[in-house]
TrEMBL record, chain A:
Enzyme class per UniProt: translocase
NADH-ubiquinone oxidoreductase 51kDa subunit iron-sulphur binding domain: residues covered: 327-372
Function: NDH-1 shuttles electrons from NADH, via FMN and iron-sulfur (Fe-S) centers, to quinones in the respiratory chain.
One Pfam family from the record: SLBB_2
Cofactor: FMN; [4Fe-4S] cluster
Name of protein: NADH-quinone oxidoreductase subunit F
Presence of the UniProt keyword Flavoprotein in the record: yes
Reaction catalysed by this enzyme: a quinone + NADH + 5 H(+)(in) = a quinol + NAD(+) + 4 H(+)(out)
Classification via NCBIfam families: nuoF_fam, PRK13596.1
Organism from which the protein derives: Desulfofustis limnaeus
PROSITE patterns noted in UniProt: COMPLEX1_51K_1, COMPLEX1_51K_2
TrEMBL record, chain B:
Name by which UniProt lists this protein: (2Fe-2S)-binding protein
Record bears the keyword Hydrolase: no
PROSITE patterns: 2FE2S_FER_2, 4FE4S_HC3, 4FE4S_MOW_BIS_MGD, COMPLEX1_75K_1, COMPLEX1_75K_3
Similarity-based family: Belongs to the complex I 75 kDa subunit family.
Species lineage: Bacteria, Pseudomonadati, Thermodesulfobacteriota, Desulfobulbia, Desulfobulbales
Amino acid sequence: MEVKILSARFDIDNAHRIDVARTHGAYRALDKLFAMAPAEVIEEVKASGLRGRGGAGFPTGMKWGFLPKDTGKPVYLAVNSDESEPATFKDRYILVRDPHALIEGIIICCWAIGCHDCYIYIRGEYTSQVKILQAAIDEAYGAGYLGARVAGRDFRLDVTVHRGAGAYVCGEETALLESIEGKKGQPRSKPPFPAVVGLFGCPTIINNVQSIASLPYIIANGAAAYRAYGTEKSCGTHLFGISGHVERPGMYELPLGLPLLEVLENVAGGVWKGRKLKGVIPGGSSTPVLTPAEAATVTLDYESMAAHKTMFGSGGIVVLDETVDMVRLVENLIAFYHHESCGQCTPCREGLGWMLKIVRKLLAGEGTVADIDLLRELCDNIEMKTVCVLSAACTMPVRSYLEKFRDEFEAYALDGGSPQPEQREG
Amino acid sequence: MAETVKLFVNGREVEVEAGKNLIDALRVVGIEIPHFCYHPALGADGNCRMCLVGIEDGRPPLVPACKTPAQPGMKVLLDDQKIRKIQRDIMELELINHPVDCPVCDQAGECRLQDYYMEYDLQDSRMRVPQVTKGKRMDFGCGVVHDQERCVLCARCVRFTRQITKTGELGIVNRSDQARVTIFPGRPLNNRYALNIVDICPVGAMTSRDFRFKQRVWFLQKDEGICHGCSTGCAIYIDHHREKNGDDVIYRYRARTNMQVNGYFICDAGRLSYKRENENRQDLTLVDGVVVDFEQGIAAALEKMNKARRPLLLVSPDATLEQMWAIKRIATFYGATLSGYSDAYRIDDDGDDFLISDDKAANRYSLELLEIDRDRESFQAALAHADLLVNFDNDLFFSPINESLQRLLGEQDRISVCSHQLPVFSGSSVILPCASPSEYGGSIINRHGVLQRFRRAVRRNADPRDILEITHLLGGAISSAERAWPGIRQSVPVLRSVEPEQIPVEGLLLNNSEERDVGP
């Protein structure tokens, strides 16, 4: 089931070195690239059906098309490498094992959108990864792929690595821009969208690492070759980080559209220790959980996930076996999003902390059924009332656990045995 | 009103000014949209989420009103069940970690959390878990005291120090419900406008050390006034209260919005100048150091003035246009020399490019309009020559530049009509107490030529007389501010068509280009 497009050089020793990477095909798309007009590149990417791999799945070529023409301002590319969502570790593989695919992709994107200054915003905790990335960038400068004349052409491109300081919210594209500008990483209200008013007030494209790293294959082999993988609307391949209770956790590149359970069985070796499956988180912690019955019918593409009322997300699949305590899982989940809320908007700032305390009250055996209902209601009250979707990234999965595994929450409430606090207060 | 657009609110068509956001545009037609973080001077931040409104058929259907311009044909939903629920939900979330210590909070009575709770929430607390605790009564400097637990993180204060004073002392640190407004360690607020933060804080998080615990705001009578702290003439509210069997006391000044004069803010010195109205007042009438009735004082003054052969009248640059006119008239009546010498009211390099002026006189502009002499040399010559000085509340010693006059003044027989006990008035043979600016009404013209009218706000038990009234008792023809105007109109061309009752609230910018081109 596995394919090797993005991961073609992952298993080659020292592929992060430019000489090794070039031996195995890196930077070969550039000759073809510079023979194309920028508009042709955008059309080719549109034709490939490539969708944003950061989780939202927005068509990449269409996003580039939103850039206003002739504003007289520079255009920026910000590569989102802030990969921080729990259970997501795909971009890390690209950064470490094939950084030149990313750099080649950056050259392609910048040629297409007319950008001469690219920022790579990398997660602060990626300390060893940033060294490898920076070394690769230095090599690319040395080899003439970056700098005043990219690959000998009359095209300047400079790439700057900007390290985050450990905030999940900076993966939100406008918070990322604020952070690069040296401000506190808080999402901006949209509109205006970054394509119009982005970094330093200039038109800006923000793309995920994997989206960018997918470009060399598309340019070198053509949109049709890329579309040969995947489904009609979910084209190409994706890096899936499979973790949790499986026999062979790891990173696998697969075409989109495969049945989830088949992938778990045939690629990841099935639920570990022969245990029963309890649920699957399909694409990072923010995606609503799937029950075993739902997991049996879903396929790994945007449309099927939406039909199952969840999201494709980041490809970070977490397998939950029968021993998982869903209430503790939800506590862990809310604790993360509460900790990472930037604190800007009232509902997210105050609400997630309240939700966390309610779950902890349940776990302490002091909760009531009314608390479960309140928790459920708070999901609705907070969601989509905020500037960004961080709060929704918490409330959407929490709602799914409350609806699909409510009995587990009620068990804590009913067996906790303590009188209701309302009665205590009398 | 400028260009207008028609849109629908809850199905009702309204016509509002184009180019404004929904909060500002709809307020003008009487539709309030609740909000904490938006302030017209500080822009839309969009963090409080209290102003979320529905847009029928809109994409997205739910928008913050502060960031949404009024568009023609827009269908805004405010009364809709869904929006009412959102407002209630946001209020609930604002309040879950709030201490609800209204009984000891100075903001109580003018607090948006209280007001919006009554209007939009009105449900019992569902919070059954421990609240977040944060810093209390933090000294932020410049008399600003911060309570982090009462704060709704609207960031108005932060934006004020960044955008208005450009001093940037405040910031929000931490994330999530641990976020809090604070100062940098050892770097408190340090600007001359810091107390505006107390005004713009929509809740009780920012309180004034000066006002804290002094008075409940619902007891305060809030009158409009003009600050007399400098020649800018900022619009203020005079908040005062008379306790049972007590005197009427001013508790604070607050900024009043006047886009033509001061915008939304006032300086701290002006704000705290209310104390001058309460303190060090001249209440007693004295003749040769003996306390007498006011009428006896007037009689003594009249006798001296009638006897004097070379009287000199000195007018204050803080006096109203009408008072100045009245004094000018009695100067003519007595054949007296009239001076408006007031160099002491200028403090060089004290002003800035915002509101604070070097000139601490409220109405020097009118001295010029009435052609009252302001020259030091001629004042000094007149003083040496005169046999009586009648000083109408001019503090020649406001700044130390007149030390050389002290000796000359000491030798002079003086009548002082004064509101405060000041060194310049001591040694006067007759002292007549008069009203201070909060106790009379009239017109003043600021340094930019904006004519503003203000009314009497405070009525003291001692009831000091308006200077204008005193001039009348001293034989002047002008018995009221209104009666001053026919003469003023006739003698000052630029005021010829001014009707004092028709001066707009924001003041009247005098069309006097010749006058304004002269001098600084």
